[in-house]
Amino acid sequence: SRVGSVAQVPVAEGKSLQQTVELLTRRLELLGADKQGPFCVDCETYHTAAATMGAQGQTGKLMYVMHNSEYPLSCFALFENGPCLIADANFDVLMVKLKGFFQNAKANKIESRGTRYQYCDFLVKVGTVTMGPSARGIAVEVEYCPCVVANDCWNLLMEFMQSFMGSHAPGVPSVFGTKHDSIYSPADTMVQYMELFNKIRKQQQVPVAGIR
């Protein structure tokens, strides 16, 4: 297991989203990071089907089914504010069979794709977050490999993130708060991606016209 941080990086002033991604990856390459090929993290949203909700007025629960190319044999099912279930890849087939209970909000599929880099003991993934046909933001995931307890290596992670993200290096992820000295797991990274994707989804719902 590796301890990781997932954060959104804003588009640089006067630059496009793609140029900002190139800026970040160039900084990594200048540090001496090695390119290791592509990665992808995706997330599909399911909501509880109306038929299962009984009394009217109940709000449906959301469930997020996620995949991470880092863990090709696993599928992650997360409930909002709830547990994260790690299942094998056949879980997707099961979700099709459960369509009477959970409906796929296809328009909400969101993913982060990009290039994976290795620098010493760090793995870095700089991804473009897309929803449907449009690019919505930039996600940077940084993992520190030799460590399994989040609190033991946060300062190291932070220092490294500042070296190429500057002032956009994130604060301590909320999932660290609940971990304290327990072992960090891949599910903790997926929870961070879920929170980031939800934040990016909400950002798009605000009308841009009023912002000066």
UniProtKB/TrEMBL annotation:
It comes from the Eukaryota. It holds the Pfam family Med20. The keyword Nucleus applies. One of its GO terms (biological process) is regulation of transcription by RNA polymerase II. Keywords: Activator, Nucleus, Transcription, Transcription regulation. The keyword Transcription applies. One of its GO terms (cellular component) is mediator complex. One of its GO terms (molecular function) is transcription coactivator activity. It is found in: Nucleus. Component of the Mediator complex. Component of the Mediator complex, a coactivator involved in the regulated transcription of nearly all RNA polymerase II-dependent genes. Mediator functions as a bridge to convey information from gene-specific regulatory proteins to the basal RNA polymerase II transcription machinery. Mediator is recruited to promoters by direct interactions with regulatory proteins and serves as a scaffold for the assembly of a functional preinitiation complex with RNA polymerase II and the general transcription factors. Belongs to the Mediator complex subunit 20 family. This is Mediator of RNA polymerase II transcription subunit 20.
